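Weekly structure sync, notes
Attendees: PL (lead), two postdocs, one rotation student
Agenda item 3: pending single-chain targets
PL asked that the sequence for the first pending target be pasted directly into the notes so everyone works from the same version. It is reproduced below exactly as submitted, 516 residues in total.
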Amino acid sequence: MVAKNFDVVVVGSGVGGLATAAILASKEGKKVLVLEKESFYGGRILSFYGKENKLWIMNKEYSYKDLQRALASTGTWITHDTPSFESVVKQGLFNHCINDGGHGLFWGDRGRITYLCKFLGKPIYMKTNKGFVVIDNKDQTKWYQVEHGKPYEWMSDGGKSARKLLREMAMLTFDQIEQMKGSLGDFLRERDCSEENWLFIRNLAGSQTAMANPDDMHLRDYLKYQSIAKDIQMDLVTGSVGQIDAGIGTLDIAVQLGNVIRAAGGEIWTDSPVQEVVIENKKVKGVKVRTKNGTETIDAGLVVCNIPPKQALSVIPDGSFPADFVQEVKEKYYVPGLLTGFFYSKRDFAREKGIDPRSFIFLSGVTKKKGLEGLDFVMASFTWWVNHAPIGLNSLLFSIPLMDYEMRDKAKVSACIAEAERFMTDNFPGWEKDVIFRIWTAGSEAYGHWRPIGQDRPDNQCPWVEGLYFVGDQYGKKEWGGGVDGAALSGALCADAITGKDYEKQIFPSYHRSSW
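Predicted structure, written out during the meeting:
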């Protein structure tokens, strides 16, 4: 057993952990170590690509079995593939990049992660979609390109009442939103929301929250996204979701943050699972980590946990926290996921419908079949606004929000996929013979571990253990948002909690901060 000393040890290498480590190493001169149990770092922003009839992650070749293990580390697996994805790779048909679970990065180059990387001297560039399309759920062969100031043709009142609701959300101040602790469902019911408005707003909100039920959506998180759209000068029509173009995909964010850490003398150890955060007399002493040399003890007075709440208890002894908090995390925290379909064809499905192929496409209330009543689709063709399609082929992506327990229900997943393929048949006769290959991934942990409705997130600084901090999109009492966008903010908030400084203000414009 070998003792090693660091100022700060970060357990887990998601965006939040890497962000905190990069700030502390490059701006504070801290000796930082990031520990990651997998063979790659970046956590849930995992992306992989094909080259030379092989699979790659971060410029490292992976076998098909190794890829499956990597996906499993993020709670993801390939649930359906036609033909088998392994055969597609061997034939050289997979020569592009896929982001695990169909990541979208809010606001593109005006998002938090862009500001963070720029602040750290490693700017990244993203392309943003343009255009917004809604499909009539009564006649799903009718697609409508939404334009500013023009009626919503699929709605009975031309969208007047829906626009009124959205306008009310957009005009709320942060102070007003902070007083609201319920769900989006509560908000809509209080306003006697009609069924068609409920379906439409449910789908809009689901695209940001990866949740299918407004009663599962924290109102404050969603309303703040609505509120900042006017300040950020982006919306669904002009474009609001960014992607990193080709290359290694979203993991480029992790690479750039890792470069900052290493340039400042920090270290990142992969294949190094933490067995236990060592705590004595309610004070952090370091961590025990398993490496190729056996179990090692890393001494550190500060430990930052970048593991989702339900999993964090596997490395931090339960006795470190109050019993009611442990019970709440274990029993009441819930996990949203995404079922994602990637279709690749020589046909250009978007253009066949006469829409701007750079659009995000929404279909609310796909079916009234029992057990699928809350089914919504979000679709996009990455071919035309970001280079995420095989050479010579066009892409069409389906994204369906499901909870983690639903994702593990094989019958439900198959039923959702059957509805997507029924939709394809209705709209694109003969599509099956024209699609070269298709892959469905089930991402059961695509969007973090969410606390119960009305509850605050656990704070970045642990109130029960000296020297213990938490980071990630579900940590920080001032934190809001989710995914990569939320993790970037949490990284700054965690660095501020450790240093007593205000990196949040240095990094982000006012509308991206925890308060205005």
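Discussion points:
- The chain has 18 helices and 24 strands.
- The first strand starts at residue 3 and ends at 5.
Action: rotation student to compare against the earlier draft before next sync.
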